[in-house]
Design goal:
Shape: elongated
Strand content: 35-45%
Oligomer: single chain
Strand order of the largest sheet: 1-2-3
Number of helices: 2
Largest sheet: 3 strands, mixed
């Protein structure tokens, strides 16, 4: 884990979200979410770390964790 700090501006972030519905195996349905995140001006590896760290503290992520499948790229 790096101690490096980044100052990321709103204009440096692009997120495309896709919400889907899949069969849950019990005759019902479940929601899925995929987030395609682009962070300008930093390396792919650093961007992936930031997205994962953000996903851990995001209030929306915390509210749905364990209930909705979320994937990121």
């Amino acid at each position: 884990r790096s101690n490096k700090e980044y100052k990321i501006r709103d204009n440096d972030v692009e997120v495309l979200s896709t919400v889907g519905i899949v069969a849950n195996g019990n005759g019902g349905f479940a929601v899925t979410v995929h987030l395609d995140v682009t962070l300008s001006g930093i390396s792919q590896a650093d961007a992936e770390k930031i997205v994962e760290q953000t996903h851990q503290v995001c209030p929306y992520s915390n509210a749905i964790r364990g209930n909705i499948q979320v994937s990121t790229t």
